[in-house]
Each structure stands twice: as structure tokens, then as C-alpha cells.
Design a protein that fits this description.
By secondary structure, the chain is mostly helical. The chain has a single domain, classed as Orthogonal Bundle (Catalytic domain of cyclic nucleotide phosphodiesterase 4b2b), CATH 1.10.1300.10. 62% of the residues lie in helices and 0% in strands. It has helices at residues 8-16, 21-35, 42-56, 72-91, 98-110, 133-148, 153-164, 180-198, 203-216, 225-244, 254-262, 268-285, 297-305. The longest helix is centred in the N-terminal third of the chain and has 20 residues, at 72-91. The chain is globular, with a radius of gyration of 19 Å.
Length: 306
């Protein structure tokens, strides 16, 4: 397995800038084949291509996904993080199979597909479905595979709770998994959803987008953007408790992935998250929240796009 890069700067770009679908797929495929050298990527690649079509508005019956925070780069970040985490689990002593790779890839790719709108409901950005987007995504997933028969029903019964595990308003321990091994796969996808987004190099820049989504969804958890930014640190503390308990600390397996990949005993995802949050706290302490360019420039661009 080739090292992505040696320098910390280049490695950071390789890890956390996943905006190009083709490059992201190639990274994921390389990792998958380091787990299973004979990995058959045909089904996973078909799903990958169709999910890309949904995001772009090229999939029959659906408009392009317009949610500003839960965008294509978010899904690609979660997807590649899930594959890396699965590799970490594999090299740490719990073997992953062809079936496991396909299940994790599909659940990660489709975990936010419920934000997609049909032409009849194409108002707003789709963020109005924030509370229901996971169940909408599960319905999409079942209809998708019923139409093309790419997978047997037994696979779908495993993908469904794995996707449901990314509904972070639903206690993970209340989700019923068909087996302990499927539970592990669900923990991988859920942990990737947390770590993949918060390690994003643009995470701070995208927080205003997240606030706009919450406002559109009529979430009353945050008074304004400043309130969301102030509470982001506590959100991470709460997230860590969930990952350390319900998710079985599986996110720590990323360290095994990077040990195998780079020869260094580091969890680059957690390091990136801590760096993002430290920067945010510095902005808050300096009273720069409303005028700091890091938190404003993308908001202006998004407002123009909308």
C-alpha cells in the first residue's frame, strides 16, 4: 500500500481534502484492496457513481442536493474515513471481508442521501428534512436496490441499521443490529461520520452553513451563529463520550491504519479535530467570531449561490 505523503502538510491535504470524487474513489479502492486483495469493486462502484449523480442532480426523479453543510465533500469525507477506519480495524486483528467492505462503503455513501429532494418538494435547500433525512435515506436505499437488484435482501437488513446509526439524535444503543459483527460495522460508519466531518480542513468555515441548515430546519438549539460556535467544543466533548461508550472506541483504530500506512503511531483525524477546535476557541477568546474572515468568506459565497 503506497504512502499517501510523508510531509505533514501534504499528508493533511491527502487526508482531509476530499473534493474530487475520482481521486477519493481511487484512495478508497487502494485501501479496500489492502484489506482484501481480490476485492470485487463492481457493486460498490455502481453505488458510488449513482450517489454522485444524485448530488449533481443527474439521477432520475431527484434534484441536486443543495444542503450547504451536508454537501458532496461531507459525504466523501465520511466515506473515505469509514474505509480508513475499517482498514484500521482489520490490521488491528478483526478481519474485514469483501462483504464488510461493500456494506460499509454503501452505508457511508448513502448516510445523507435523504437530503435529496424530488421535483415536487424542491423548495429550500433540503435542510428542512434534517430530523428525518436518515429515514428518508433508508427508504431511498431500499427502493434503489429493489430497482436494480445489485444486492440480496440480507445485505439491506444490515445496511439499514448501519445508516440509522448516523442519526445522532437517536441513541445508538437503541438501534437493533442483526449481529455483533454488523454492530461493529455500524460503529465504524457512525464514528466516521463524527470524525470525518470534524477533521475536515474546512470544518470551521462550514459551521455557518451548519447554522443555516439548523435555522431552515427550525432547530431551536442555537440562538444564533455565535451560540453554535460557542457550543461546538461541548458538542465534541459529548461526541467523545458517545464514541468511547456506544461506539466502542472504534475511532481509535484509525491509529492502526496510520501505523500501517506511514509507520507513525498517530491518529491524524483526532489531531486535526483538536487543531480545529483549538483554533475556534482562539477566535472566540479574541472576540473575533462575527468578523473573523475564516468564518465569513464562505458564507458570503453561499449566500450568492443561493
Amino acid at each position: 500500500m503506497d504512502m499517501e505523503h510523508n510531509s505533514s502538510v501534504d499528508l493533511s491535504i491527502a487526508l482531509f481534502e476530499n473534493n474530487d470524487p475520482g481521486e477519493t474513489w481511487e484512495k478508497a479502492l487502494q485501501i479496500a484492496r489492502s484489506i482484501e486483495p481480490n476485492f470485487d469493486a463492481e457493486t460498490a462502484r455502481q453505488v458510488f457513481d449513482d450517489v454522485m449523480k444524485v448530488f449533481r442532480g443527474q439521477y432520475p426523479g431527484y434534484c441536486a442536493i443543495k444542503t450547504p453543510y451536508h454537501d458532496l465533500s461531507h459525504t466523501l469525507n465520511v466515506f473515505i474515513c469509514a474505509v480508513r477506519l475499517m482498514h484500521g480495524v482489520h490490521v488491528s486483528g478483526t478481519p474485514m471481508t469483501q462483504r464488510d467492505i461493500v456494506l460499509v462503503m454503501i452505508a457511508a455513501l448513502m448516510h445523507d442521501i435523504g437530503y435529496a429532494q424530488t421535483p415536487d418538494e424542491n423548495t429550500g435547500t433540503g435542510a428542512q428534512f434534517t430530523r428525518t433525512h436518515v429515514e428518508r435515506g433508508i427508504r431511498f436505499m431500499r427502493a434503489y436496490f429493489a430497482g436494480n437488484r445489485l444486492l440480496p435482501q440480507s445485505y439491506l437488513a444490515q445496511i439499514e441499521p448501519m445508516m440509522r446509526g448516523t442519526n445522532h439524535s437517536l441513541p445508538f444503543r437503541e438501534i437493533k443490529f442483526p449481529s455483533d459483527h454488523t454492530l461493529l460495522l455500524g460503529q465504524i460508519v457512525s464514528a466516521a461520520d463524527f470524525t470525518g466531518q470534524m477533521a475536515d480542513r474546512s470544518y470551521l468555515e462550514k459551521l455557518p452553513y451548519l447554522f443555516e441548515e439548523f435555522r431552515e430546519a427550525q432547530y431551536d438549539d442555537y440562538v444564533d451563529l455565535n451560540d453554535l460556535l460557542q457550543k461546538t467544543g461541548q458538542f465534541y466533548v459529548t461526541t467523545c463520550k458517545v464514541m468511547d461508550t456506544d461506539l466502542g472506541r472504534v475511532h481509535q483504530k484509525l491509529r492502526h491504519h496510520f501505523r500501517k500506512l506511514t509507520g507513525t503511531d498517530r491518529n491524524y483525524y483526532l489531531e486535526a479535530i483538536e487543531k480545529n477546535l483549538a483554533h475556534l476557541q482562539q477566535i472566540i477568546r479574541n472576540g473575533q467570531v462575527e468578523r473573523h474572515p475564516l468564518l465569513r468568506r464562505r458564507v458570503a459565497a453561499h449566500a450568492q449561490r443561493i
